[in-house]
Amino acid sequence: MLQLNYIRENTADVLKRLAIKNFKDAETIISSVLQLDVKRRAIQQSTDAVKAEANIIAKQIGMLMKEGKKEEAENLKLKTGQLKQSEKEFDEELATIEKEIHDILVQVPNTPHLSVPAGKTPEDNITILEHGTIPTLYEGNTPHWDLTTKYNLIDFELGVKIAGAGFPVYKGKGARLQRALINFFLDRATAQGYLEVQPPIVVNEESGYGTGQLPDKEGQMYFIGEDKLYLIPTAEVPITNLYRDVIVKEIDLPIKNCGYTPCFRREAGSYGKDVRGLNRLHQFDKVEIVQIAPPEKSYQILEEMRDYVAGLLKELELPFRILKLCGGDMSFGSALTYDLEVYSAAQSRWLEVSSVSNFETFQTNRLKCRYKDGTGKTQLAHSLNGSALALPRIVAALLENNQSPKGIVIPKVLVPYCGFEIID
RNA sequence: GGAGAAAUGGCAGAGUGGUCGAUUGCGGCAGUCUUGAAAACUGUUGUACCGUAAGGUACCUGGGGUUCGAAUCCCUAUUUCUCCGCCA
Q1: 3-class SS at A198?
Q2: CA of A203 and C1' of B63: distance in angstroms?
Q3: Which nt is closest to the CA of A49, judged by C1'?
Q4: DSSP structure class, residue A414
Q5: What is the CATH number of the domain that holds A387?
Q6: Residue A36, CB half-sphere, CA atoms under 13 Å: how many?
């Protein structure tokens, strides 16, 4: 959520940036918020004035009672009736207008960084780096969904029986590969200075709100109605919410956390080749990295995070590219996002395996995640996160790219984690 | 799940209707002393909103109520602790 004060003081800038995100009716919405804000401040002044008067009278009555001047006290009490009435009215008016403002603000997306390219569709994203060579596969290569069956790594049908489509059962070397990747990712992240955390994989409503999944995207999360808990769509939610209602010392920034969790997504509305095999699942595993950063360093940190993830892909020897997302393809809360995509050779397509974003104060404003700066002033920190990495598509690319007539070759870096060099 | 107790500032812990935004201790910050540090001493130390400012308003787990006035009384929700039950 954008800060009202910021909108008020930088209206032109906000509008300019919202245009990059193709946010419709930005001018109308922003100006209505600003009008409501003027009204709100006027009402608050009236409210405060009435309350101040009432407080004074209450104190006077207290004094009179102490001095035993009951009659005078009774007279003063008579005066308070009118005040109480208008106090109540003002309070209600204020609450109403604050809710109105809030309801509008939650619908306004984050303002993109000025370097974000304009554009509406993924075609408008900018490729900033391509790395590795796309492998030439041998005659008779197959997509991963055939390989997983051939080598008995994943049983999709069994998952359907147990839970439903999109809940695969990993078996044998398939299961071991999962575990290997998780450990590899966590080891690399901790070596990079990220503190590993193991958060709950369900969150309450407040947490969903804090990182922006609620109120908008609740249809994308599994909900346990009896206990009012949401299954997390990403570890970003519980980990970032660790810092909800927290004021940290500047010296403790940046805070770097990583964590492995399963992720659950309802993926309502997905279909076709996008959901085939491992391409899109309802449950998948991911290691997430999260940073709480001082504003002046957040963009440098974003690049570090992006490059760190790229480093993982290099170690895994996967061909990949990095995209800088255009305004139209960025998520609601992000100010700048890099997507990392690996090339899945048998499918002949790029698969998104990581999304690294700077949210600036968009999340921390909701979270009330702040720090004291050098001058002792309290201000909002920036929050950033990225996948490092999501497993299924990595597995898909590994299987497809590394297939050979003899079997699937495990990248060197994973061999110690897997305990085998080839899947055959 | 049953019975009981509790929830106060970064922490500990006072405060049961009227100058209480809240005693005190610890911690933090600044200073004095010291070659430096420690100790001791002195001062300072919550958040948000409104206001150019002076200042004002709100917040003692959340919500509602009683009252001229609520940290304090009542209702309610949540959470925590103790005991019992169940259980990885």
Answers
A1: coil
A2: 22
A3: B56
A4: G
A5: 3.30.930.10
A6: 22
Please check whether residue A61 lies inside any domain of the structure: yes
pLDDT of residue A273: 66
Chain B, protein-covered positions (CB within 7 A)? 18-19, 47-51, 55-58, 68-69
As a whole number, mean pLDDT of residues A9-21 equals 93
**Which residue is nearest nucleotide B48, judged by alpha carbon to C1' distance?**
A368
Could you tell me if A175 and A389 are in contact, meaning their C-beta atoms sit under 8 angstroms apart?
Answer: no
The average confidence (pLDDT) of chain A is 91
Residue A171 contacts residue A153 (beta carbons within 8 Å): yes
Q: How far apart are CA A414 and CA A422, in angstroms?
A: 11
| Residues whose CB is below 7 A of strand B | A 5, 41, 44-45, 47-49, 51-52, 54-59, 61-62, 65-66, 77, 80, 84, 247, 370, 372, 378
Structural domain boundaries, residue A71: 4-105
CA to C1' distance (Å), from A232 to B6? 32
pLDDT digits (tens, 9 = 90+) for A275-298: 788 999 999 999 999 999 999 999
Report CA torsion sign: A334, A340, A343, A344. negative
Residue A116 domain-assigned (yes or no):
no
Q: Are residues A171 and A233 in the same domain?
A: yes
Query: What is the nearest nucleotide to A57, using C1' and CA?
Result: B68
Closest residue by Cα to residue A109 from A299, A336, A302, A372: A336
Tokens of A226: 């009896």
Count of structural domains, chain A: 2
Per-residue confidence (pLDDT) for residue A272, from 0 to 100: 67
> Distance from residue A245 (CA) to nucleotide B6 (C1'), in Å?
24
ipTM associated with this complex: 0.85
**Contact between A340 and A322 (Cβ < 8 Å):** yes
